[in-house]
Amino acid sequence: MSTSKKLFGTNGVRGLANVELTPDMAVKIGLAIGTFFGKKNLLLGYDARTSGPMLAKAVTSGLTATGCNVYFVGMGPTPSLQFAVKNHKMDGGIIITASHNPAEYNGIKVIWNDGIETSHEQETEIEKIYFNNKISFAPWDKLGELKELSDVNDEYASAIKTHVDIEKIAKKHFHIVIDAANSVGGLITPYLMREIGCKVTSINANVDGTFPGRQPEPRPESLGDLAATIKAIGADIGVAFDGDADRSIFVDENGEIHMGDKTFAIILKQFLLKNKGATIVTPVSSSTLIKDTADAYGGKIEWTKVGSVTVSQKMKEINSKLGGEENGGVFYGPHQAVRDGAMTTALLLEIMAETGKKLSELVAEQPQYFIEKGKIECPDEKKAALQTKIYEQVKNENVSTIDGVKIWFNDKSAILIRASGTEPVYRLYAEAKKKEKALELVKEYSSRLKELLQTI
Ligand code: MG
To answer: Per-residue DSSP letters for 309-356?
Structure first.
């Protein structure tokens, strides 16, 4: 049987519950993961989705059938479950979550013993076991056991407190609004923030797997209630989590929503002031703002392909202590080299306390860029040839082909041209100091790509 079939996407197995991801598949995925680990101790938990308990029981059946012991945690943010894998010296973990996808989706994410998602190579091994039916069933008297682990969310919150100056934060009596997306983001952070001296107002904090409050992807168009609440009650800051609370998007005291590049740059600056010459990890899709900040404060950047697993793996490989993504993922290595919404919130409050500046002021002192996006249609089978052709045209520029083609120009503008992994399109992301310039770049490279496509 073919082994080129795919089960895992960029972030675990993902699909529509009971349509693309069914309980019988989940049993088999559990069998494959259990065979991959081989009679080990594995943690298991889920986010707030309605299909979570159903899929967790199916995965448990598969895992215990291969002789793995399952330590069931129940509901928790992805970073809390990842922390528990490491903290409880598990051999690995499985998290049932579809992160930012709508309520009808779910997914299965596999975690290694250090709390970081398994590498894409390890996922390929699990896929081979799955598609080739190389399941290793345990005999009836050596089946895995189902146990329970409690208190992991409290342990995670306690660990976060050790990484920030909680007395300094407490003195400021910040008023924070937390938008938990009706998911696991409401389980820990509201309590953690109160414990470190903040006044907390929560919205969408009731756990409800139908996500009635807003879509679990923290995009500006979904965060109007958060912005309005901050202004109405005069809060200092607001944070919105995605469905599994590993990503966080912040809103300032004026109700302005700031995408992840800006908050990551604030954290990066403070990190470099305390860690001179450090190397940080970020995907090539990140704003030039990240490069400007690293240059200004003596940091080095290791660019990666787009995807949080790749960022985590690179941090592990080079022992980097900080990573970040434009979508609101910040990886703080001293805690754990994975995206972590609660940790990011604590770091940002610490910076506001240390500098005495409001979030709007911290953003305003950064270099400003305008971002414009575009896309052109391109059949999947022509994607590779098109990338080769466009690279031929621009190879003498300051260019990277780590993921798609990224060109940095001398006037601080840049463009990333990248084939979509899921649709027959090429996407263009341009940024520049002036809006017109960013628009012009999208226009110029869209027509270049269209012309080249004619020749393929
Ligand atoms: Mg997520």
So the answer is: HHHHHHHHHHT-SEEE-TTS-EEETTT-SSB-HHHHHHHHHHHHHHH-
